[in-house]
Every structure is written in structure tokens, then in C-alpha cells.
Amino acid sequence: MLDLRYVVENLEAVRTRLCRRGDAYSASLDQIASLAQTRREAIINGERIAKELNDATAAMAKIADKKSDAFALAREKNRALGDARKTFEREQAEAELAIQDLLLGIPNEPAADVPDGRDETGNVVVKTWGAPPKMDFAPKEHHDLGTALGILDFERSARLSGPRFSVLFREGAMLERALATFMLDVHTQEHGYTEVYTPYLVKDSALYGTGNLPKFGDQLFKIAGNEERTYDLYLIPTAEVPVTNLHGKELLADDELPKKYVAFTPCFRAEAGAAGRDTRGMIRQHQFDKVEVVQLVRPEESDAAHEALTRHAETILEKLGLHYRRMLLCAGDMGASAKKTYDLEVWLPGQGCFREISSCSNFGDYQARRADLRYRPADDAKGKAKPRLLHTLNGSALAVGRTLVAILEQYQQEDGSVVIPEALRPYCRGLEKITRR
């Protein structure tokens, strides 16, 4: 979330920058400014009353006759001052709670180089890699290809779990596993990430830390608490949630940075509001696998880290020979927590369009302030440096299911078979092609 002092001292500038997102946050900003003034006055008055109370207490202690009218009057004065102090403390606490709730609903400011725009039509193509595969036949979509090959089954998954699930058989299941292992190997061996395995269930505090709550509560699957477990748990929508929060409430040393993690997890999303969208196939599901990369870095290094992290995701697509493009998202199409986002979109011949396969974002200190992610810079010439907020970054590298979809569509042959990319063959027992059985 944004820093309260920064918002109050730069109210109009913040208002102008947030207006680029296309949502109206002016009323919330005005409320924050008003509540901040109420809080400030409560603190000043509370401190004044506290001093008066200390003086009155000291004066009362000097009254020798504890049964005198003077002592009784002094005692009543102390009680009145004590009640007044509690009133100001309560006003301060109520204002702080209201400010916190409002700040949690305010998105991050877009970076200066993020283009203006209200939706995806304002996004900008930064680069394109490769070319669409040449096909002298009408390409099929992945769900038709996979079903015909006997490696994708949506009817059985619907009977098991309902819509927006899939079952993978034989080479389909092998490809899912192979892709995840391939991605993990590239990121750990070539890009220097540390592999981490995290819980798939998290408390709400972790989701508040990354900005998934309170705004995206309708997208989450919740497991309510019970007599033995008094708190709720949520299925993770992405590994970003547990991995980003790994060092919450710690104070990292400067020489520990940067922290670079990679995790392979299932992801669970309710897909609320997506009725009628991508109902066929594996594009938009309630459960899917993803390899996620997360970095915790010094503030001055986050822009360069964002470019590097995005390149790490791109190398997976290039090693697999998949035609893709990089998009710079406009202010109105970015996620609420991000200050700058690149989307990688892969070409799907069956659909005849590009589809998102990765989103790589720099959040600045927005998540770090919510999750309490801090480090102590190296000592400067003046002595011990004060703790600072980290900057957080994350990206899909990649969404495994959508990568499988792209392979099926870009590597399909006229006879309905699918060639396995050369880079994946060592992970597929040397298999070169998937054919009908």
C-alpha cells in the first residue's frame, strides 16, 4: 500500500497519477486526508492532556491531607483528564483503523514510463520474437487436438469436479511434468534462483501482504476455520503469495540481497466474473500449474531486476521455440499492486491470436509495506543505516498449462500429431512426437 505521509503531503500529485488507472479514487483520498488531520489533532491533544495529567498527578501527590476538599478536587480533575486522554486515544485508534482500510483499497501509482490507457487496447507491443509456424492446413485448437490424441479429457474432469478443470493422460501428463521440471532447471541453473517449496494454503495475512485481499476476495477459494483451527485458510491463487511473504516481519541484512526464488505450485482461482469466457480447454481454469519467480531487491535495483526477470521468462519461450511478443501494459490494465507490468503473449494458431502466458511486475515498495519486508542497508559514513522497505517483483515463468497449450497448437502437424520441442525431449524419455493411438 502507499505510505500515509506521502499521500497526505502529495495529495494532488497522487490523485493525478491514480486517475491514470481509470478508477475514481478522489473520494477515498479526500477521506484519508481528513482522517489524517483528525488523527494528528487527536495525537496533539492526547499529548497535551497527558502532560496536564502528569502535572496534576504530581500536584495531587503534594497534598498532605488526603481527606481534604483540595485532594478530592485534585482527584476529580485527574479522573476528568484521564477520561479525556482515553477519548483522544480512541479517536486516534479509530482514525488509524479507518485510514488503514482506505489505504488497503488504494492501488499502486503507475510508473512514469507506463503508457496511458483504460484497458488492453492501450497496451504497447515492446518486442516480438520468432514468427508464426507455417501451416498449409487449417490449424486446430488445443482442446480438439488433445482430445483427438487421447491426452486431454474434459468430460471426465467435469464429472469429477465440474467445469474449468481438466484431466491429462499419458503424453499430456508427461508434458505437464516435463515442462515444470524444465522451467525449474533453467531458472535455478542458468538464472540463479533458489527453488522453494511452500504451502498451498495460507492465512489471510499473506494475501493482504501481496494485495490479493481485500480487493480480490471473490477470486479465492476459502476453507473456513473450525473449533480446532480458529482462522480461515485460502488456497493460493499463485505461488507469489507464499513466496513473497517468506521474509515478512524479518530484517534482512544488505549482503543477503537480492533474494531470488522460484517455485512450482498449483494455483486455484474462482474465476468469478468469467462466465462464458474460455469455457473450452485449458486457458482459464479453476486449477492450473505455474512456475513462479519472485525477487526481493534493494529499491535502486528494482527497475533493472524487472527487465532481467522478464528476460528470464522469455528465455523459456525461446528455448521451446514458441513465437511470442512482449507487451507493456497501460495504466488502466495493470494489476492493482503493480507499478509496471510486462505481459508475455504466446501465439496460438488454432485461435489465430496472441494469449497471455506470463505477467512480470515490479511492485516497488507497495507489497513490502503491507507484508513488512525490510532490510538494513550497509553502514554508511555516518554510522548504522536505518531499515528500509524492500522492492518486490514477480513473474510467471511460465504458466505450465498455457505453455502446453502453445506447444500443442504451434507444433501441430497436418495429420493431427504434435512434435515435441527439442529442448523438452530429454525430459520426455527422448520422445519426439505425440501421435494418435
Q: What would a concise description of this structure say?
A:
The protein is α+β, with helices and mostly antiparallel strands and 437 residues long.
Task: Explain this structure.
Helix 3 runs antiparallel to helix 4 (69-104), helix 5 (142-149) packs across helix 12 (400-410) and helix 7 (170-189) crosses helix 12. With 437 residues, the protein is of the alpha+beta class. It folds into 2 domains: 4-104, Helix Hairpins (Orthogonal Bundle); 120-434, Bira Bifunctional Protein, Domain 2 (BirA Bifunctional Protein, domain 2), CATH 3.30.930. The protein is elongated, with a radius of gyration of 28 Å. The two termini are 54 Å apart. The protein has helices spanning 4-9, 11-19, 26-61, 69-104, 142-149, 155-161, 170-189, 204-210, 240-244, 302-319, 366-371, 400-410, and strands at residues 124-129, 152-153, 167-168, 194-195, 201-202, 222-223, 233-235, 251-253, 259-268, 287-297, 324-328, 340-348, 353-362, 374-376, 388-389, 391-399, 418-419, 433-434. The strands form 5 sheets. The protein has an 8-stranded mixed sheet with strand order 1-11-12-13-16-10-9-4. Strands 5-7-6 form a 3-stranded antiparallel sheet. A 3-stranded mixed sheet has the order 8-14-15, with no helix packed on it. Helix content is 39%, strand content 19%.
Indicate the CATH class of the largest domain. Alpha Beta
Number of strand segments: 18
The CATH topology annotation of the largest domain reads as BirA Bifunctional Protein, domain 2
Q: Average pLDDT, to the nearest integer?
A: 95
Largest sheet: 8 strands, mixed
- Residues in helix, %: 25-40%
Q: Report the order of strands and helices.
A: HHHHEHEHEHEEHEEHEEEHEEEHEEEHEE
- Counted by DSSP, the helix tally is 12
Gross geometry? elongated
Strand content: 15-25%
Detail the poorly predicted runs. Answer: none
Radius of gyration: 28 Å
Which structural class do the helices and strands define?
alpha+beta
Distance between the termini: 54 Å
Number of domains: 2
| Sheet with the most strands: spatial strand order | 1-11-12-13-16-10-9-4
- Identify the CATH homologous superfamily of the largest domain: Bira Bifunctional Protein, Domain 2
